[in-house]
Amino acid sequence: MNELLLQTIVDKLNKVDEGIRQINSATPQMPDYTEQLKSVGTSLEQIKADVTGMPERIKFPTTAIYKLSEYLQINNDLLKRPPIREVKHHHHVNAGVIVSACLFLLLALVCVWLFNTRSMLQAYTARDIKYRYIQLQAGKQLRPFLSEIDSLYRAHPQVFRDSVEQWEEQRQQIASMLVEAQEKEEEAIRLRKKAGKIR
């Protein structure tokens, strides 16, 4: 039986070989791509080596990301609590400028005071000269009157000054009333002349 089985297997193999020959003769001859496949194989091996070595070359920067997240957290906290700004005004005027300004104002006030004092002194000097002139030029009847005026002034200077000022005001009022009366008289004369022309 073994021989029969062996014979059958040999026959079958012969038929398979015959079929393969027929298929090979029926199909055109295929080109040989073994060299290209070898180069593709080596390229694939190189790519595989590069891909396996990639994690070492492209490391994820965990420490830098950790620091960045800390900085972002600090910034977020600062943005939630904005700082309060206090505006402080600094005046850059030193003491020398202030002292100079005060001295200038003091000098101006002293100059104004001296000018007023000089004006008053000139007025008093002029009045004194006029009074002395009246005393020298006055006749015998005017000298006792001037002496009486001097004694009245020495006795009550404020009352004497007030009475003189009041008398001057009255004379000024009388003078203004006389000027007004003269203007009205001139107006009346003008109106009479105008009325005479109308008749």
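(ticket continues) Second input and output from the same batch:
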Amino acid sequence: MAVVRDRRHLNLRLPLPEPSERRHRFPLPLPPSANSAAAAPTNSAAAISAADLEKLQVLGHGNGGTVYKVRHKHTSAIYALKVVHGDSDPAFRRQILREISILRRTDSPHVIKCHGVFDIPGGDFAICMQYMDMGTLETLLKNGVVFTEDLLAKICHQVLSGLEYLHAHKIIHRDLKPSNLLVDQKMEVKISDFGVSKIMQRTLDPCNSYVGTCAYMSPERFDPDTYGSNYNGYAGDIWSLGLTLLELYVGHFPYLAPGQRPDWATLMCAICFGEPPSLPESTSDNFRSFIECCLQKDSSKRWSATQLLSHPFVCNIEPKSV
């Protein structure tokens, strides 16, 4: 049972933009066959159109779009609808198109489902996605939920299963953090937000690895020569998972003191050159070992998602049937 207590939180969303020379000029076309719900009913038994949906409330705003809670007029099913405005920033629009491309490839109970992509009159377009009624793990943390080791083990097993699926399909997330892990009342967790993700071909272009939220970046993404001579991208997701679990456990970003204001240079120095985050003495050996397997500064020593699923901290968790 989760416990609630007061906690202070910092804004660690310090995104690093992709290199300017890679920006596309507006407008951008939708991916092939993504122009209507009928053509792109990803993971959905039936097509959904904009006319089928009624808006219930705003869930959030972004630089170039809005996410709504919506209801299907005929089935009463609830969805999340991400509407991208036609005049949105080209970089944001590019991220959304990347997310669509990834979502159309995935079919896992541990990855958020896309039920359709379609145009909206006026130049906007929208992604209809699975609705998670408890928001994100960041939301729970801000609301004072205390994440016990047992709860974290159940969360971790689901996220690892999602990462194992993604990595097996050559997809790296590159921005795993509490705000990109959606949760419902059953504590089912889904990986979301693939705006800076990458579908691997052979190797990862080093300049392409410098995207995401810098607070959760692994050392080799700041300094590949020192920490990632064999960097392949997948190990970066494991680092982000370890840091996410640690943040949920201690109640604040673990590489900074509670209340410390972060900036890019401080975070880079802490991650690359600082001592590993300390854990309370009451931490179990299994959880301590699991975190160490995730937060190895040398990326070649970090465990893979498949290896971590066999770790004693999570190996006895019963998979959720969803």
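Agent notes: The chain has two domains: 14-130, 137-308. Confidence is low (pLDDT under 50) at residues 1-11, 14-45, 203-210. Closing as not reproducible unless the customer responds.
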